[in-house]
Amino acid sequence: MTQTAPMFSKTAVTLIAPLSGYIYPIDQVPDPVFAQKMVGDGIAIDPVSQSLLAPCDGEVIQLHPSHHAVTLKNPEGLEILMHIGLDTVKLRGEGFNPKVKEGDRVKKGEILIEFDADYLSLNAKSLITVIVIANSDQVARFLPRSGSVTAGRDAILELKLGDVQAETSNGKGITVTSDPIIILNPTGLHARPSAVLVNFAKKYKSKVTLKMGDKEVNARSVTGLMALQVGNGATVHLVAEGEDAELAVKELTEAIRSGLGEEVSAPAPASIVQSALSAPATPPPYPRSENPNIVLGASASPGVGVGYIYVVRQQEIKVTEKGGNSNEERRKLEKAIDQATLEIEALRAKVHAQGDPSKAAIFAAHHELLEDPELIDFSTSAIDKGKSAAYAWQQAFTNQATILSQLDNQLLAERANDLRDVGTRVLRILTGVVEVETTYPDNAILVAEDLTPSDMANLDRTKVKGFCTVGGGATSHVSIMARSMGIPAIAGTEPRVLDLADGTPVILDGTKGKLKLNPASEEMERVKNLQLRIATKRQEDLTHTMEYALTQDGKRIEVVANIGSQKDAEEAVKLGAEGVGLLRTEFIFMERTKAPTEDEQTAIYSGIAKVLGPERPLIIRTLDVGGDKPISYMPIPKEENPYLGERGVRIGFDRPEILRTQIRAILRASEVGKVWVMFPMIGRLEEIHMVKNMIEEERQNLGVAPIKTGIMVEIPAAAVMADLYAKEVDFFSVGTNDLTQYTLAMDRGHPKLAPYVDGLHPAILRLIAQTVKGADQHGKWVGVCGGIGSDPQAIPILIGMGVKELSVSINSIPTIKAQIRTLNTADCQKMAEQALTAETGAEVREVSPLSEI
C-alpha cells in the first residue's frame, strides 16, 4: 500500500499520480529512448484508468498535435512530460480527447486528456504511460514510489531540486548554420526522435539551436523541440555557436537526415531537384490508343473544341550559380518578390473583374506562397553560402515543388504546379527575362507539358478553343479555371502530343478525354454546325428553364443541382434548379490546415439555404473523403485498398467529433431553410441506426425540429437491402459513379479499365431498379445524383424505372428539363424494361438513342 509522502523543504516537489495503476521503474519501460532516460528521468505507470490528471499545479506548455503527450511547467520551473502509451503518435489523435490547450493553467488533479484504453490496447504497442522530467538537469535527486497508486491521491515521485547553471557560450569559436534539412520522419519530430536529437546535441560544447521558419528552440530541450511541431516534410536549419560548431552541425545534420533512430524514406535525388523546373510531376498512366490519330487522356474540363494545334513552349531561363555580395543578393531577392507580389495582385484583380471570385482566390493563394518562410529561409541560406539570388531561389522552389509532386495526396501534388508558376515569376524578374506575351492564332487548341494559372488568366477565350497537357489532373487549379471559363480540356495525355506540328487540325473532346488528329474537313464542319445548333437550342431551353420538368403525360420530375458552394447555388437558381440534391461538403474541408468550425459550417450552409429560399430543398451530404479524396489534417493510415477502407461515413464514425460538429451545423442551418441531411457510403443497417442516433442526440441538445434523413446508394449492399433500409430513412440518392465501380470491381481511375466503367451497364440499372422497388414499398422516393443523372441516354430509362429526382450538373439543368418535357412515361417504362433485359451497356444505348442535337 502506498504511504502518504512526507513534505520536503522549498527545494522539494511532490508529484501525485496522474493515473491509477501500477508503477514501473523508468528503466523497465520497453522502449530504449525512455528506458535510457534520453527524454528525462522519471517513472512509468501501467494504467487502469482512462483520464490523465495533472500531477501538480502548472501551465500547459506543450500539447502534441496527436494528443498523446502533454507537458506541464510547475511553479518551480520543472517540465513534466506525460506520454500516454508507446508508439501512440502513429494513431494521429485517434482514441484521445484533450481537455486542455497550450497556455492553460491547471490545478493538481484536473483532467488533461481522456483516452480510450480499449482502442489503444488494440492499436498501440503498449498502454504504459511515462511521466518524466524533461529538464532533469534541474533535479538533484529523484525519489520514485512503487506499487499500486490511485489517480489524484497518491504520490508517485518526490524531487529534490539542485542548483542549475544556465547554458552560456564562452565566446570562443564560430557560428555555423547548416544547409536546409528536410524532415523525413513519418510523424515528424515527436518525443522519440526529439529525445535522440537532444542527447546527440549534449555531446557538443557549442550552443545548438534548431530553426524552422522564424522560430527557433534549444536543441537540448525535448519539450522545446516538440512544441515547435516539426512535421514530416518540414524544412529546418541547425545553428551551432562555439568551438566545435562545425562538427556539431555536420554530425547532427547527418543524424536528422538518417531519421534519429526511425525508419525514413529517402530524400528526393538531386537530379530530380535540378530538373524539376522543366519537368512537371509525372502524370498517371492513362489509356493509350492503338489508333495513331487518337490521343487519350483524362477529362479535365467538359465540352468539344474544334481547331488547330498550337504548341506552347516553356520560356528558358538561365541562371548563374555564383553570387556577389550576400547583402546585395538578398536585396535583389526581396525586390523581385515585391515585384512579383504586385504582378500577382494585378492578375487577381483582373480575374475578379471578370466576375469569378474563385479564380481570384487562386491568386490570393499564390500571394501566400511568395511569403512562405521555408522558401525564403532556404534561399537566404544558399545566398549566405555565396550563391546568386536567382540560383538560390530556383533551388528553393524547385526543391519544394518536387517534394509536393511526390506526395500521395493528389490535391497537394497538383499544387506543385502553382509553386512552379510563382517561382518562375520571381525567377524571371531576378534574371531580367522579359515575359513573352503570347499571341494565339484563331481556333487554337493549345498543347503543353503543363499550363499555369497565370497562363489561364491571360488566355484569349475568343481564340483558344481548348487545350491538352501532358501533366496536371482534374483537380489542378488550371483544370478548375478551365471549367469555370467553359474551355474544353484534357490532361495526362501521351507526350507525343508535344511533337505535333502547329496547325495540325484536331477535334478535342474534353468530356471523353480524347483528342482526334487530322479529321476530315467535312467532319470538322459537321461538329462546328452541331455546336451552333446546340448553342441555339440551349438559348431556347433557357427561356423555359424556370418551368417545371413535366413529361407529356403530366408526370413531374424534380431537377435539382449538384453543387459545392454558395456561388454554385446562386448559378443553379438562375438556371432553374428546383433545389440542391447534393451539396458536396468535402470542398469546405479541403485545402485547409484544420477542420472548419461548427460556426463556420453553419454560416456556409445557412447562406446556401437562404439563396434557395424556403421552398427549394437543400440536401447536404456529410463529409465524404478517403480513398481518392484525402485531407492532409485528417491522415488515414496506409491501406492496401483505400476504396474499400475508411471512406465516407466510416471516417465520421472513426472521428465522431468531426461528424457531430457537422451534424450540429446542418441542424442549425435547418432553421433558415428546407435543409435535409444525407450520409455517404452506407453499407450496413447498423450505420443508419448510428447516424440517426447522433442526429437525434444533437437535435435534442439544440432544441430544433427534426429534419429529413437520407442515404447515398453507392455500395451494392444498400441497393440489395433497400426494402429494409427504406423503413429507416426518408429518401435515397443513387451515387452511380461509386456504385458502378463497386459493382463492376473496376476503379474508375484505372488506366486500362476506366473505359469499361459504364454507368449504363445493365447490372447498375438493375440495382437502381431494385432500390426504387424497395423504396416504393414504404412510400419513399429515389433520386440519382451520380453521372448518369445528367446523361441524356439514361434519363428516359431512369424515369421509366420510377426515379423521382435527378440531381445534375448546374449547366445541364435547362437542357435536361427540356428533354424531360419531350418524354412520355409509358414510352420511358418500355425503354426501362428493354434496358433491364439488355446484356451490355452498348445494347442499353441502342434502346435509348441520342437525338440529332
Write structural notes for this entry.
This protein is α/β, with parallel strands linked by helices. Helix content is 36%, strand content 20%. The chain is built from 29 helices and 35 strands. The strands form six sheets. An eight-stranded antiparallel sheet has the order 9-5-6-7-11-3-2-13. It has an eight-stranded mixed sheet with strand order 20-27-26-22-23-24-25-21. Helix 10 (389-405) packs antiparallel against helix 12, helix 20 crosses helix 21 (685-702) and helix 26 crosses helix 28 (825-837). The longest helix is centred in the middle third of the chain and has 28 residues, at 326-353. It is globular and about 90 Å long.
Outline:
The protein is α/β, with parallel strands linked by helices and 853 residues long. The protein contains 29 helices and 35 strands. It has an eight-stranded antiparallel sheet.
